[in-house]
User: Which sequence fits this backbone?
């Protein structure tokens, strides 16, 4: 599939020429500087504070950069009619989709590695490896969902709002399920309906709340089994979202 | 942008989608449901951190945190008293929520009606003291929860001096017009229960003379109460027999 590789290379080149990697480096440097500043302020647990206050913003920044880049890049291609040009090539639409996805996935992996770099002096090594691999998985899910949303909506604002909503909901779903399942009085019909709806939504969302935990960097690293479940969930969700995006892409009349 | 027929979608994509959806639902359905365990209640963040996290609008954060905290005393709908819950942490959370949302009543309702009713006396007492301390910060709004705390101290803990302290605080500090008669008179009833009839009589007398009681029904009730107490005091006094 040379077209997939060419598209992936072109997508990565676009990210480099958009100075996206420079942006990532700047974010990493700023986060590192902020953590150093907070280290001076902290009276105790300075290493833990540095690690936590570096890891959490870097993860969110990586998610934000990936989502915004995927969405704006795809919308620009659509507006410039580059998508139509690429789809006119003698290759199936799936090749176009997987070429773009491969390029964005490589960028997501690079961003995850860059985000892990400033944590090297503070975090335990095994925990950091698992955290980085988990961040790659998380960013791959965000990439796939961003692609799905931009293929469906073809507009920056609705697509980004949908991705942001998806991400926030996925990360807080477990807490929402606990709250929904804990009414103060005996559950009424409305309580039961709300609980069922929340559980139904939870079935369709990936378990992002169990991914890329800052605690892995601070305490003893989790078992490899934890990584296994993260990778398993990622692969499964990629199959689901990529097939949904392909379904939408095949049905679009350009 | 118009849509093409579903027939143009390759069958493999449809199969993958169906398989992916079924596998995702299967995976999540077989996963154990998320549960909040008592030992999972983390230490409360500092008020500065919470204010930062609230992005300048602390009330919604306070409300959301209360719902989060609530999940630690009920699990999956079954009422379980959390004897193992760390009450120091719990108090810190409740205090932070009240700092974020001082007009909110939920934390004190939870403190007096949920957390103060666990069957562990030390935890009950610590929660009642928390309600008392918070009452002193805004007596006219928070008196109902101290009134409930007074009832718990009297009927559950059978600690009349403690109940008297709380009732006295309501009588002294909750001075708004909307504070009902029964709440302001709790002190008198507890004194009666403690057999301190003379003190109760003096308090009612002083209360009537203060001019704070304007309602005729309330005046009549207190007057009758005063007469009853005088009769009982006279009956107890050996010199009057």
Assistant:
């Amino acid at each position: 599939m040379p077209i997939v590789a060419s598209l992936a290379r072109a997508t990565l080149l676009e990210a480099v020429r958009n100075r996206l990697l420079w942006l990532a480096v700047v974010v990493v440097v700023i986060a590192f500087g902020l953590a150093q500043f907070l280290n001076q302020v902290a009276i105790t647990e300075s290493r833990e504070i540095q690690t936590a206050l570096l890891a959490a913003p870097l993860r969110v920044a990586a998610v934000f950069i990936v989502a915004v880049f995927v969405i704006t890049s795809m919308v620009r291609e659509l507006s410039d009619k580059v998508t139509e040009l690429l789809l006119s090539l003698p290759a199936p639409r799936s090749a176009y989709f997987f070429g773009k996805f491969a390029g964005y996935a490589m960028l997501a992996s690079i961003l995850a590695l860059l985000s892990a770099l400033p944590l090297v002096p503070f975090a335990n090594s095994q925990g950091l490896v698992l955290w980085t691999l988990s961040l790659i998985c998380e960013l791959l899910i965000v990439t796939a969902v961003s692609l799905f949303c931009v293929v469906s909506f073809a507009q920056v604002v609705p697509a980004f709002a949908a991705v942001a909503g998806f991400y926030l909901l996925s990360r807080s779903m477990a807490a929402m399920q606990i709250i929904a399942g804990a009414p103060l009085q005996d559950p009424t019909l409305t309580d039961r309906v709300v609980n069922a709806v929340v559980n139904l939504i939870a079935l369709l969302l990936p378990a992002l709340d169990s991914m890329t935990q800052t605690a892995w960097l601070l305490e003893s690293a989790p078992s490899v089994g934890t990584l296994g479940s993260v990778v398993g969930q990622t692969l499964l969700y990629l199959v689901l979202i990529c097939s949904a995006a392909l379904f939408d892409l095949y049905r679009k009349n350009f | 942008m118009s849509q093409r027929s579903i027939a143009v979608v390759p069958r493999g994509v449809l199969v993958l989608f169906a398989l992916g959806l079924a596998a995702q639902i299967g995976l999540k359905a077989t996963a154990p449901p998320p549960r909040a365990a008592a030992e999972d209640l983390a230490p409360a963040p500092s008020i500065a951190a919470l204010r930062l996290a609230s992005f300048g609008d602390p009330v919604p954060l306070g409300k959301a945190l209360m719902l989060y905290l609530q999940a630690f005393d009920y699990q999956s709908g079954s009422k379980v008293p959390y004897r193992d819950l760390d009450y120091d942490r719990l108090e810190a959370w409740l205090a932070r929520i009240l700092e974020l949302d001082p007009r909110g009543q939920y934390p004190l309702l939870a403190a007096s009606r949920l957390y103060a009713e666990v069957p562990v006396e030390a935890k009950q007492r610590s929660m009642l003291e928390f309600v008392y301390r918070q009452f002193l910060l805004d007596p006219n709004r928070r008196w109902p929860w101290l009134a409930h705390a007074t009832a718990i101290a009297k009927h559950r803990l059978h600690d009349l001096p403690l109940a008297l302290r709380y009732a006295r605080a309501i009588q002294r500090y909750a001075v708004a017009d909307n504070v009902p008669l029964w709440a302001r008179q709790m002190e008198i009833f507890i004194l009666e229960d403690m057999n301190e009839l003379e003190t109760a009589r003096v308090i009612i007398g002083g209360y009537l003379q203060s001019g704070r009681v304007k309602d005729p029904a309330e005046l009549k009730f207190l007057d009758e109460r005063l007469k009853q107490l005088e009769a009982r005091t006279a009956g107890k006094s050996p010199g009057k027999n």
The interface with chain A takes residues 1-6, 8-10, 13-14, 16-17, 19-21, 23-25, 27-29, 31, 33-36, 67-68, 70-71, 74-77, 114 of chain B (CB under 8 Å).
